[in-house]
Design a protein that fits this description.
The complex is a heterodimer of chains A (about 475) and B (about 350).
Chain A: H1 3-11, H2 20-28, E1 33-36, H3 45-53, E2 57-61, H4 65-77, E3 83-86, H5 92-100, E4 107-110, H6 118-125, E5 129-134, H7 149-152, H8 154-158, E6 165-169, H9 174-183, E7 190-193, E8 201-207, H10 211-224, E9 229-232, H11 236-248, E10 253-256, H12 262-273, E11 279-282, E12 297-300, H13 307-314, E13 324-330, H14 334-343, H15 349-360, H16 365-372, H17 376-388, H18 391-417, H19 422-429, H20 468-476
Parallel strand pairs in A: 1-6, 1-7, 2-4, 2-5, 3-4, 5-6, 8-13, 9-11, 9-12, 10-11, 12-13
Helix pairs in contact in A: 2-3, 14-18, 15-16
Chain B: H1 3-14, H2 21-28, H3 33-41, H4 56-68, E1 72-74, E2 79-81, H5 83-90, H6 99-102, H7 106-124, H8 137-147, H9 155-171, H10 176-184, H11 196-202, H12 207-224, H13 232-237, H14 249-259, H15 264-271, H16 275-288, H17 300-313, H18 318-324, H19 330-339, H20 341-344
Antiparallel strand pairs in B: 1-2
Helix pairs in contact in B: 1-4, 3-16, 7-8, 7-12, 10-12, 11-12, 14-16, 15-16, 16-19
The chains are: A alpha/beta (about 475), B mainly alpha (about 350).
The complex binds adenosine-5'-diphosphate and zinc ion (ZN).
Zinc ion binds near residues 441, 442 and 445 of chain A.
């Protein structure tokens, strides 16, 4: 099989990107594989191309419905019609229709919770599955806002299939790799890792003394340097606040977070893609499924809770391969703030006992969680563990999980405070060595004034204000 | 019009007999017995559910401003207009909302138009690939069906839709400002829509005022396009937007049993619901059906007596009326006040 020719014919690319070909070969040899490729390197090709060679369908388990819809849309856009997404948002009739003709689809995207639907399992059994893909597989070893108990159950579901399993993720240290192997019950998986290093991104870590100083720094920076860029903040309120301040200074910026109206969120994203906005200030709700290759800057104005999360967000910059800058602003109180946020979903012992008690009295779970003062995420975590452990064991698990979170945060803090090359540290955290440092490496190695950064030639697109009927004419003729 | 004038209007209507929070529930369109009943008592159907996601903080801020300006007073129990507020509210022209008919579904109507317009805008300029500005799967499927087989690349098609849309906007009687907002919530090739924030700063207004103007314009547009001959495209976009049964699903099930002759007690048992819930359902049914057989529950004379007393006392507060009519239950009193709405409007 000439993979290269197929790549050209089906996707129009003349070369594989690093790592892709290897992963595809493992999969075609029916080996389980964990592929760790940086975001934007083209992970989806690793299952799309084999899909055209292997008999049967490719089942892709994807954690976020929005992400899934986005991928399906992207594939349809590229001309693949035999693709479908199954999730709990579909109406009953629509779902039944799809299930009845499941075999007609080459690529079947499902959300983890679909796996526990009986009817889905029954229909799936009737068709041939050539490959099973778990996207964003690192979710398996997380808790926090993205904790997905359904994800942990995938392994139980998979044990009745013998198709090869491909786990995809952008960031995974050895603990995550172990978790993935164990929970997915993978069979001696080949670990295919491509360097996480992004030589075109330079890292700066800047210590300041107050939130006010952060605001001033950001303002000055944005007025003097180029976008497009994203500012990540720890809260919706702060995202709004920064957007407001910068708008006053004449910057084309909007805030983006889950508290905004659905339509407004779509509009803001579209404006950013079209360069009508130069900057976005956002919580971590922004970024997944945003395909913009020319993002020049990512600024963190809070302390991310893990290095992995930090790297994921930084990785949204410079996907076009041109230089990009990542900046992290840090003030000493950030540590407490982040620690507070990561522990906020963790139910304490008395809450947990209270909750378990109410459940044993046969009360409604959601109501009980509310009465016990647990968050939605907290409830999800506890429910998962209560299903398979005793209360005392669960308490222990909570302690372990929470200690792990705290450890992750320590590592992030260590990175921020260290006097060592940022690139080296980040890579070593993922078990990689830094073989070659780019010229513009990091603030520790020393950064010259970056010339491209102060080039403000990017002209923001400004649409003239036109009357209502003129606008409709512009749109429709 | 903005949120504060609407709030003032609501508080005025509620006549000092409800808490501040009743207004929030009303605007959000909460489907509880209490809110549904308030809508009826106080003649507030047009404002029901015009802002399903209204932020509690924004609501509170708006109320605080009214308090600071001494237009309203509010204690733990009740909220009422001050004299100054009473004068102020006279200047307020009631916007032309039809909340009771649309209940947030107007946004689906607009979503369909927006996605169809975007699709046509791209296709007519020769490109078939874009990020749909509507993420809602149901809207996407609807528009896909709506546009299936249509000559999207034919300039005449886009022109026809354009002409229909402009004609409808003019006919609806919305203000120029509203037409501007409407047009700027549409996205197409090279023209992305604007957020409420952006429109507010362009129009020198507040985001909430822009939002309310936008919703009102949809409520005014929807009745216009009920005629499929004049508005073939928009009429299709309005499919299934207006509520046809004003009852909640649960109340509908109760109604079925009631119509079959079950007693309230039987219904409560069969459906395994509390009696108070069934009472709420009955009230809901009475609210929505002029021919509801009230005399099943209370005699004509009793109704008359309660109504004249209520008039005399100038109140619709159950507690006060209950003192006067010890032999009647709260449920019966509620029912009487509900069915009388026709009479006093
Ligand atoms: N071999 C290749 N050559 C050129 N472009 C590629 C190649 N593989 C993938 N791409 C492009 O790279 C982009 C990112 O791919 P995607 O699969 O979405 O990345 P990831 O899932 O790793 O973030 C897509 O636009 C895709 O078309
Ligand atoms: Zn360095």
């Amino acid at each position: 099989m000439d993979l290269q020719a197929l790549l050209k014919e089906r996707f129009g690319y003349s070369h594989f990107r690093p790592g892709q070909e290897e992963v595809i070969k493992h999969v075609l040899n029916k080996r389980d594989c964990i592929a760790i490729l940086p975001t934007g390197m083209g992970k989806s090709l690793c299952y799309q191309l084999p899909g055209y060679i292997m008999p049967g369908s490719v089942l892709i388990i994807s954690p976020l419905v929005s992400l899934m819809e986005d991928q399906v849309m992207q594939m349809r856009k590229n001309g693949e019609k035999r693709v479908v997404a199954l999730n709990s948002f579909l109406s009953f009739t629509e779902r039944s229709r799809i299930l009845a003709s499941l075999g007609n689809y080459k690529f079947i995207f499902v959300s983890p919770e679909m796996l526990s639907h009986k009817s889905f399992g029954l229909h799936l059994k009737k068709i041939e599955i050539g490959l099973i893909v778990i996207d964003e597989a690192h979710c398996i070893s997380q808790w926090g806002f993205d904790f997905r108990p359904d994800y942990l159950r995938i392994g139980e579901f998979l044990s009745s299939y013998n198709s090869p399993i491909l786990a995809l993720t952008a960031t995974a240290d050895s603990k995550v790799i172990n978790d993935i192997t164990r929970y997915l019950k993978m069979n001696e998986p080949i670990i295919q890792r491509h360097s996480l290093d992004r030589p075109n991104i330079s890292y700066s870590i800047i210590q300041l003394n107050s939130t006010l100083e952060k605001t001033d720094w950001i303002k000055e920076r944005i007025l003097q340097t180029t976008g497009p860029g994203i500012i990540y903040t720890s809260s919706r309120k702060r995202a709004d606040e920064l957007a407001f301040e910068l708008q006053e200074a004449g910057v084309a910026i909007q805030s983006y977070h889950a508290g905004k109206e659905q339509d407004d969120r779509a509009i803001i994203q579209e404006q950013f893609l079209n360069n009508e906005l130069e900057w976005i200030s956002a919580t971590n709700a922004f970024g997944m499924g945003v395909h913009k290759s020319d993002i020049r800057q990512v600024i963190h104005e809070h302390l991310p809770s893990t290095i992995a999360a930090y790297l994921q967000e930084v990785g949204r910059a410079g996907r076009d391969g041109r230089p990009a800058a990542a900046t992290l602003l840090y003030i000493p109180v950030d540590e407490r703030m982040t620690s507070f946020i990561i522990q906020s979903d963790r139910p304490d012992e008395s809450q947990l006992r209270h909750y378990a008690n109410m459940l044993s009295e046969g009360r409604d779970p959601s109501e009980s969680a509310e009465l016990a003062g647990m968050t939605d995420t907290g409830k999800r975590i506890v429910d998962y563990y209560l299903e398979r452990h005793t209360l005392d064991e669960v308490l222990e698990v909570m302690d372990t999980l929470s200690a792990e979170k705290e450890t992750e945060l320590r590592k992030m803090l260590h990175l921020v405070r260290s006097e060592q090359c940022v690139r080296e540290m980040v890579l070593s955290y993922f078990g990689e060595q830094c073989n070659e440092k780019p010229e513009a490496c990091c603030s520790i190695c020393g950064l010259e004034v970056l010339e491209w950064l102060t080039d403000k030639s990017l002209k923001k697109k400004t649409n003239e204000l036109v009357s209502w009927d003129e606008r409709i004419t512009n749109l429709l003729g | 019009m903005d949120l504060s004038s609407i709030l003032l209007f609501i508080i005025n209507k509620m006549n000092g007999e409800r808490t501040l929070n009743a207004g929030l529930h009303l605007l959000r369109g909460k489907k509880s017995g209490q809110t549904l009943q308030d809508v009826e008592y106080f003649d507030l159907k047009p404002l029901f559910g015009i802002w399903p996601k209204l932020d509690e903080v924004l609501y509170q801020q708006t109320a605080d401003e009214l308090i600071n300006k001494a237009l309203i007073t509010s204690d733990e129990k009740f909220c009422r207009l001050t004299e100054k507020g009473g004068v102020e509210v006279q200047h307020f022209q009631l916007p032309r909302f039809k909340g009771w008919d649309y209940r947030g579904r107007e946004k689906v109507f607009f979503g369909r138009i927006a996605l169809a317009v975007q699709t046509i805008s791209y296709f007519r300029t020769g490109s078939t690939s874009f990020n749909p500005i509507q993420r809602d799967r149901e809207i996407q499927l609807f528009v896909k069906r709506l546009l299936e087989g249509k000559p999207l690349t034919d300039p005449k098609f886009g022109k026809r839709i354009s002409e229909e849309l402009k004609r409808a906007l003019v006919t609806s009687g919305i203000s120029d400002r509203q037409k501007y907002i409407f047009a700027n919530r549409l996205t197409g090739r090279g023209e992305t829509a604007k957020t409420y924030d952006q429109l507010a700063s362009e129009l020198d207004s507040s985001p909430s005022a822009v939002y309310l103007l936008f919703i009102e314009s949809l409520h005014m547009l929807l009745p216009v396009v009920e005629n499929p001959e004049n508005y073939p495209f928009l009429n299709k976009c309005a499919f299934d937007i207006k509520v046809h049964s004003y009852l909640t699903d649960s109340a509908l099930r109760t109604k079925k049993l009631f119509d079959q002759g079950y007693s309230m007690k039987d219904i409560s048992k069969t459906r395994n619901l509390k009696m108070s819930t069934i009472e709420d359902h009955i009230i809901e049914m009475a609210t929505n059906d002029e021919r509801f057989p009230v005399t099943h529950f209370v005699s004509k004379d009793t109704i008359q007596a309660v109504l004249s007393k209520s008039e005399e006392m100038g109140t619709k507060r159950l507690k006060l009326l209950k003192n006067e009519f010890q032999m009647l239950s709260y449920f019966e009193l509620r029912l009487i006040l509900t069915v009388n709405r026709e009479g006093d409007s």
